[in-house]
């Protein structure tokens, strides 16, 4: 439950509230069902108060505010303008002060607030002696002193005019006053927060009416009050009283735009004083709308949090008691907080007060002598005021005390299996205590919550009763077997063949039950089964072995629905489709037969919104008090989308007349018992109530926190004397696993017993696992709580899935549930069974050797449960003793090996049934030989062998040879240094040249750190079938990593070797290796090389003394020397051409430069000994490519060259802007001349990039397209004669801010007031100085900060000249001026007339209309607008806006006094968008202003407008309706126009539709509403 937006919808469904939904009372006023299992040992009394002590018979006129005074043994109360004291001790009352005494001019009491904590009454009253001004006062009456401690004038806080009125008063713990005031002038309610010294702290608009302050939370500043809400329900408005809230922080008051709850509908279910703050700080209220009492944890309630659920502690149903004509039966919430126990004491009707803990659990009750009128904390007690039907009042001073002793009616007892015993508990408390009953051995004896004990099997059990405060009593119960304990078994019958095995199981939706078994009064059995030939009826002997008779009943309609065996008659339901959707078509026929199957009569049912009966569901029946209840389903008439939706359907039939007395088949919602997509239906009764269960597949649709439809199990209940739609509903389980028709669940059984409703069902393990577990749902009959108990606990991935269960009621506290389990791996079906008590506690379990079908098992008089199963064969009748499931069970074995097998002899395994102890044995095959392998390992010098031998008998089947090891080698014996650990691979071969396997035949042990240069050993150790070790060696030597041709020679590089001091380089000669260099570096360049010479090098490590410390690579590394080609390092554009730069190459004499022409190869163009050269023979925007090579002195090339070359596009150097300056003509740009270019292109930067503005051959340019204070950015580039750019540009550019010196007059125009001057605003200027030219020069006429001015000192026909300049704040001119000025000849032609486009207009509240004027031809004038009544309508620039109901004249006036007017009527209503349908098809959309006194009601093919007063009071008041022509031929019609070729009209009823003709108010309101509606329909109707 959340805060609800004002004007939002609300549905009162008990089950939807969030914290605890405790339906404590049924429709007859029974409290909690029969759950009070202890009786009070003392009598309860109530004292009748004196006559006229309290007067309260009308909620709307009587007032009663009570302050208990336990210290004075009485109470103070304000009752209808009189303050009294009532003595509880003496049963007397006395008057203290009477506000009816006009002597003090206090004859008009406005509102009262009672503060029990402070012990004060706060009374606001009007001094009516002054007729010219209203004076309001606040009295503060202290009950302790019985005196008025203050009287304060609050008139100024109410309002300064006589149109403001106080409506309610409240006071918080800080003595701040909350005064609700209605300002009728503004039609709004305001709550003023006032300090203790009567100063206004803050105010807040409350929106709608404020009726009564209910409580103030001292912890967080929350406050609560009763107010008005226009509650919209299914599109209709309802006047309701709602609970609203606000908050005060730092003396600032705020009010929520949301309401907490709807309290009641005004004029229907009113109730006085609906909410109060409890002594523990919780806030409680009662709602007659939803029939509930709710307790809020106010300290945790944030009124600004509209999204979270309300922090409710308790929500208790009290439906049906604060109803119409019973509003004077009580006041207040009748709820108090019991500080001694921390619980809530609450009146729950039926003369009963209940004690509830914070979870809604009932702990105790107290039976009052009369219905409770009001309840209050009274010291340590509770003051209870009661009222009888004769308007007498009574008082009880109730001390809530728990028992100290409990006595049971028996302390020991003996019963038989299947029998029951009722235990009765009494206590020494005045309270009716709610006890907990338990059994210490549920399988022997179980006990219901009202103390009824049932025997389940032989043995003994202790039954214990316990009170909430821990007091207990016990009874020992002995259970004995019956003399004739029935056996379980099966009988193969000789009846007709059929196939119903597992037919009770369904995957998505169920179907009608076709197989039935009933026990007759003579104990014979009847099989009734629907077949293709009709309904088969077979009668069998009591044991099912003998077929006595057989017949077939003809199907009276094509579709079979179901069968029911009543007490005196049998019933079969048939049906047929109604594809034409005709209300006259028969869709269901219920046929009544005698017990001997003679047809007696029938009940034919027609139309009933049925397209297909029994579709996608089932049908079940019960009978009660001569009525037959048929519960089923149907697909319905097609909706606007042409879809035939499926839902539940019920018919109640009088069995004597076979006429329906009640039905349910129309579309509604869950609160009316309607279940959308009901895939299975069950119905049961407990003699008073009808219970229904549905498998509901629908969206979880919620309106204002209430479920309208749900995906899950729905359980509903209604009284047998009530309507089938007047239900209480709960949802035991929401599926919410899958979407669409597949819910992943199935329901198999429903029973009612011992105060609980039990539902057996299966459900998918998860959304990804469609195997199902079996469950039982247990809900108490009054829908307090639900427990869902798992019967199985299979997990995702299981191969086992439970099928739809069957549920059988054995007695009030014993139920048998059976289900099949299918194993998809073994393809086997197993049937499991449990007996459970009414709370689903397990009594016994078994696996049964039976199968299930759609035949509902029945409990028979011989003490067994019977049903039949057929598998394309004659039926098999099963019988199960529910008290001894072991008599027919499937053995479940455990096994042990009693003789172990050997390799020479077999063994024995013995099985024992865990249920009954039955045994069986099986032979265990002889064991295979257990061989052990004996190995003689091979070595490097000798062969080995393998011998295989059985450890049990010594048998040896074979011996094999292991060949000796002949070869062990490493992958290499020399490795170059890498800085990494080196581990050469090992190869081992035997004498047959076969490789041995590493890890199996040998393992390799490498050195721990074979990284650095040196010699290392590898140990090969033989294992498995081999033994011995072998050592192998390898060397790590330095490695030359690269040989590179450089300008200095061949560069030799190598990796650093850890631990080496230095290195020795060798060069290979014809005589071997020659030492050429010792170094500590890791590279060396051999300069003693010549072009195209190949050299070979190797290296080894040395220590500090020059001694070699490593081996070397004997092959070495070789390199052919080729001089390196030079590299052009830089190409750049200069004013002289392209400049090339390259690095010097050692040993080269000079360099040869090449360029690449457009065609052909490289062309030599320069030899030089320098390292740079500028190519001046280049062309702008042409790309040049260059390369270079080395030369010797003789001009021979001695190096390669880069064949790709290096390229650059020649672009002349970008020019530079050297100067930007402001001039009178704009911004002047100057730049330096660039040699060799033809001209220049100027660019300006915009938001989209650079924009070309000028091409020129000059070196300066003035940009005149500038404005004051505008900053502009420019750049420049070179161009050729063809206008092509030939240089780059500066991307950042150069910027300049332009400051304009002279403003310009942009417009001169003639007006009725003179010449109007207009000019553009100059950025940065404070103001402007205007000048008019005279014969002696410019004359200053005006300083202004505006941008317009009208010069009125002009004459018609004369020409005037003006100029303007800027000024600063000090009036100093800061700009130049236009010396020529601007001129205008003044000519004025006043209008002769003015006309408006409308002379009358009609609008609603919050609407507007725009008027336009036209002046006489050729004239000009300013026009002013005015309204004759600004409270009705205001006007601005011709736009008229409604302010309030009434008539106003809107006038437009010219400068010379010409006028035009429009009469505007504002209707006291708002425009609504409406529509008209024709046979469910939209004919038109329209809108009209609907007066507030009228109400819109949608009907068949029309929109009806009714008088709201007559509608609410008498259900009448039709004013007119809008429909299409010819819809109602009895009324005169008036055309409104055509829509979709259809004439739309409005029509009146033949006579005035008013309520009681003697009610003049109703008649007058009707006439007023008709007048208002006539005006609106004729003047504000329009098509949308």
Describe the protein in words.
- The chain is mainly β and 1584 residues long.
- Helix content is 2%, strand content 52%.
- It contains three helices and 132 strands.
- The strands form 36 sheets. The chain has a five-stranded antiparallel sheet, with no helix packed on it. A five-stranded mixed sheet has the order 2-24-23-22-21, with no helix packed on it.
- The longest helix is centred in the last third of the chain and has 21 residues.
- The radius of gyration is 53 Å and the shape is flat.
- About 3% of the residues have low confidence.
Which keywords apply here?
1584 residues, mainly beta, 5-stranded antiparallel beta sheet, 3 helices, 132 strands, 2% helix, 52% strand
């Amino acid at each position: 439950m959340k805060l609800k937006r004002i004007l939002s919808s609300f549905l009162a469904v008990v089950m939807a509230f969030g914290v605890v939904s405790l339906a404590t009372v049924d429709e007859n006023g029974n409290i909690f069902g029969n759950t009070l299992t202890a009786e009070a040992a003392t009598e309860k009394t109530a004292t009748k108060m004196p006559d006229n002590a309290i007067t309260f018979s009308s909620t709307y006129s009587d007032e009663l505010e009570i302050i208990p005074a336990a210290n004075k043994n009485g109470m103070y109360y304000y009752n209808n303008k009189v303050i009294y004291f009532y003595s509880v001790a003496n049963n007397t009352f006395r008057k203290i002060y009477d506000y009816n005494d006009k002597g003090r001019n206090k004859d008009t009491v406005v509102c009262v607030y009672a503060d029990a904590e402070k012990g004060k009454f706060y009374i606001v009253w009007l001094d009516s002696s002054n007729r010219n001004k209203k004076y309001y006062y606040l009295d503060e009456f202290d009950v302790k002193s019985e005196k008025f401690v203050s009287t304060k004038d609050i008139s100024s806080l109410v309002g300064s005019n006589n149109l403001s009125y106080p409506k309610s008063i409240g006071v918080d713990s800080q003595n701040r006053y909350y005064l609700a005031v209605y300002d009728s002038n503004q039609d709004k309610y305001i709550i003023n927060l006032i300090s203790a010294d009567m100063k206004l702290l803050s105010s807040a608009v409350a929106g709608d009416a404020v009726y009564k302050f209910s409580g103030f939370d001292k912890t967080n500043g929350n406050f609560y009050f009763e107010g008005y809400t226009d509650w919209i329900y299914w599109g209709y408005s309802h006047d309701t009283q709602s609970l609203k809230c606000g908050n005060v922080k730092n003396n600032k008051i705020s009010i929520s735009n949301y309401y907490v709850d709807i309290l009641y509908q005004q004029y229907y279910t009113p109730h006085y004083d609906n909410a109060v703050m409890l002594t523990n700080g919780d806030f409680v209220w009662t709602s007659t709308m939803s029939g509930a009492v709710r307790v809020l944890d106010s300290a945790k309630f944030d009124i600004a949090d509209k999204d979270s659920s309300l922090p409710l502690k308790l929500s208790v149903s009290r439906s049906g008691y604060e109803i119409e004509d019973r509003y004077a039966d009580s006041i207040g919430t009748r709820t108090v907080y019991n500080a001694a126990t921390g619980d809530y004491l609450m009146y729950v009707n039926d003369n009963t007060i209940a004690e509830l803990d914070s979870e809604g659990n009932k702990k105790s009750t107290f039976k009052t002598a009369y219905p409770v009128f009001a309840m209050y904390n009274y010291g340590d007690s509770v003051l209870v005021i009661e009222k009888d039907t004769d308007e007498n009042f009574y008082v009880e001073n109730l001390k809530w005390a728990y028992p100290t002793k409990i006595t049971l009616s028996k302390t020991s007892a003996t019963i038989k299996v299947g029998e029951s015993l009722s235990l009765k508990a009494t206590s020494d408390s005045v309270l009716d205590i709610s006890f907990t009953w338990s059994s210490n051995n549920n399988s022997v004896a179980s006990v219901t919550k009202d103390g009824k004990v049932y025997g389940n099997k032989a043995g003994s059990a202790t039954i214990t009763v316990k009170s909430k405060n821990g007091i207990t009593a016990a009874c020992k119960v002995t259970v004995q077997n019956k003399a004739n304990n029935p056996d379980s078994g099966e009988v193969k019958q000789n009846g007709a063949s059929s196939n119903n095995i597992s037919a009770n199981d369904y995957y998505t939706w169920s179907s009608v039950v076709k197989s039935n078994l009933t026990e007759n009064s003579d104990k014979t059995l009847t099989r009734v089964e629907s077949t293709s030939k009709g309904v088969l009826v077979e009668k069998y002997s009591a044991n099912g072995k003998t077929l006595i008779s057989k017949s077939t009943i003809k199907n009276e309609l094509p579709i079979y629905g179901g069968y029911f065996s009543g007490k005196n008659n049998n019933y079969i339901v048939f049906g047929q489709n109604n594809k034409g959707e005709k209300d006259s078509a028969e869709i269901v026929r219920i046929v009544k037969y005698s017990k001997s199957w003679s047809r007696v009569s029938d009940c034919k049912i027609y139309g009933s919104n049925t397209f297909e009966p029994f579709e996608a569901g089932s049908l079940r029946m019960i009978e009660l008090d001569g009525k037959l209840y048929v519960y089923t389903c149907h697909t319905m008439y097609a909706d606007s989308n042409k879809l035939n939706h499926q839902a539940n359907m019920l018919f109640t039939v009088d069995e004597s007349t076979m006429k329906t007395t009640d039905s349910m088949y129309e579309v509604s919602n869950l609160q009316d018992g309607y279940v959308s997509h009901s895939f299975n239906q069950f119905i049961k009764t407990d003699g008073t109530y009808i219970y229904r269960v549905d498998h509901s597949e629908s969206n979880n649709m919620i309106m204002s926190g209430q479920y309208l439809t749900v995906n899950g199990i729905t359980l509903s209940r209604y009284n047998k004397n009530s309507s089938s739609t007047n239900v209480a509903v709960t949802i035991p389980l929401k599926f919410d696993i899958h979407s669409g028709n597949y819910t992943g669940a199935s329901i198999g059984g429903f029973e009612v017993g011992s105060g609980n409703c039990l539902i057996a069902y299966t459900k998918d393990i998860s959304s990804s696992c469609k195997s199902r577990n079996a469950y039982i749902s247990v809900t108490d009959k009054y829908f307090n709580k639900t427990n869902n108990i798992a019967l199985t606990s299979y997990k995702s991935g299981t191969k086992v899935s439970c099928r739809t269960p069957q549920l059988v009621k054995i007695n009030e506290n014993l139920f048998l549930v059976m289900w099949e389990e299918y194993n998809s791996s073994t393809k086997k079906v197993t049937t499991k069974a449990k007996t459970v008590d009414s709370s689903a506690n397990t009594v016994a379990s078994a696996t049964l050797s039976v199968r299930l079908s759609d035949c509902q098992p029945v409990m028979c008089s011989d003490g067994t449960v019977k049903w039949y199963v057929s598998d394309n064969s004659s039926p098999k009748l099963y019988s199960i003793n529910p008290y001894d499931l072991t008599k027919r069970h499937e053995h479940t074995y455990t096994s042990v090996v009693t003789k172990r097998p050997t390799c020479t002899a077999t063994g024995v395994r013995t099985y024992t049934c865990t249920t009954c102890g039955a045994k069986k044995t099986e032979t265990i095959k002889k064991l295979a030989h257990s061989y052990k392998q004996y190995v003689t390992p091979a070595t490097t010098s000798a062969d080995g062998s393998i011998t295989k031998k059985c450890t049990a008998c010594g048998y040896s089947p074979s011996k094999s040879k292991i060949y000796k090891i002949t070869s062990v080698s490493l992958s290499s014996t020399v490795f170059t240094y890498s800085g990494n650990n080196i581990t050469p691979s090992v190869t081992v071969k035997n004498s047959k040249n076969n490789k041995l396997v590493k890890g199996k035949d040998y393992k390799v042990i490498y050195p721990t750190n074979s990284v650095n240069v040196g010699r290392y050993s590898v140990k090969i150790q033989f294992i498995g079938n081999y033994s011995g070790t072998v050592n192998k060696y390898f060397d790590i030597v330095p490695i030359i990593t690269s040989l590179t041709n450089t300008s200095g020679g061949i560069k030799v590089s190598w990796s650093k070797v850890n631990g080496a001091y230095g290195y020795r380089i060798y060069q290979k000669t014809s005589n071997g290796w020659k030492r050429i260099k010792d170094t500590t570096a890791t590279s060396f360049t051999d300069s003693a090389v010549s072009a195209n010479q190949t050299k070979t090098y190797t290296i080894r490590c040395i220590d500090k003394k020059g001694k070699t410390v490593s081996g070397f690579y004997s092959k070495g590394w070789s390199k052919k020397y080729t001089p390196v080609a030079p590299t052009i390092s830089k190409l750049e554009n200069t004013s002289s051409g392209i400049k090339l730069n390259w690095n010097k190459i050692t040993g080269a004499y000079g360099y040869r430069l090449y360029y690449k022409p457009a065609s052909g190869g490289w062309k030599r163009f320069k030899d030089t000994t320098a390292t740079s050269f500028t190519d001046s023979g280049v062309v702008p925007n042409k790309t040049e490519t260059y390369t270079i090579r080395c030369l010797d002195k003789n001009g021979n090339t001695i190096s390669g060259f880069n064949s790709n070359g290096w390229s650059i596009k020649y672009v002349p150097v970008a020019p530079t802007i050297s100067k930007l300056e402001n001039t009178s003509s704009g911004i002047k740009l100057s730049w330096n001349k660039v040699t060799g270019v033809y001209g220049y292109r100027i660019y300006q930067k915009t938001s989209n990039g650079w924009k070309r503005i000028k091409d020129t051959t000059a070196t300066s340019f003035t940009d005149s397209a500038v404005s004051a204070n505008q900053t502009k950015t420019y750049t420049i580039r070179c161009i050729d004669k063809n206008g092509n750019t030939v240089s780059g540009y500066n991307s950042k550019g150069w910027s300049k801010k332009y400051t304009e010196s002279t403003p310009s007059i942009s417009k001169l125009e003639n007006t009725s007031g003179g010449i109007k001057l207009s000019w553009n605003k100059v950025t940065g200027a404070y103001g402007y100085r205007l000048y008019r030219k005279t014969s002696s020069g410019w004359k200053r006429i005006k300083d202004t900060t505006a941008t317009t001015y009208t010069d009125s000192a002009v004459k018609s026909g004369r020409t005037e000249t003006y100029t303007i300049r800027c000024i600063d704040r000090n009036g100093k001119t800061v700009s130049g001026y236009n010396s020529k000025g601007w001129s205008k000849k003044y000519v004025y032609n006043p209008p002769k007339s003015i006309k408006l486009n409308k002379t009358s207009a009609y609008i609603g509240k919050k609407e507007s209309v725009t008027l336009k004027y036209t002046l006489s031809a050729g004239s000009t004038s300013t026009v002013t607008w005015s309204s004759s009544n600004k409270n009705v309508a205001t006007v601005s620039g011709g736009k008229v806006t409604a302010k309030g109901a009434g008539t106003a004249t809107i006038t437009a006036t010219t400068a010379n006094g010409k006028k035009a007017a429009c009469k505007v009527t504002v209707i006291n209503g708002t425009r609504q968008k409406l529509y008209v349908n024709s046979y469910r098809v939209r004919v038109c959309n329209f809108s009209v202003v609907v007066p507030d006194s009228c109400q819109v009601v949608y009907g068949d093919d029309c929109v009806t407008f009714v008088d709201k007063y007559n509608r609410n009071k008498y259900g009448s008041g039709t004013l007119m309706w809008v429909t299409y022509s010819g819809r109602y031929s009895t009324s005169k019609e008036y055309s409104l126009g055509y829509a979709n070729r259809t004439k739309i009209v409005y029509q009146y009823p033949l006579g005035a539709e008013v309520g009681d003709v003697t009610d003049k108010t109703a008649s007058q309101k009707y006439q007023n509403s008709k007048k208002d509606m006539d005006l609106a329909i004729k003047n504000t109707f329009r098509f949308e």
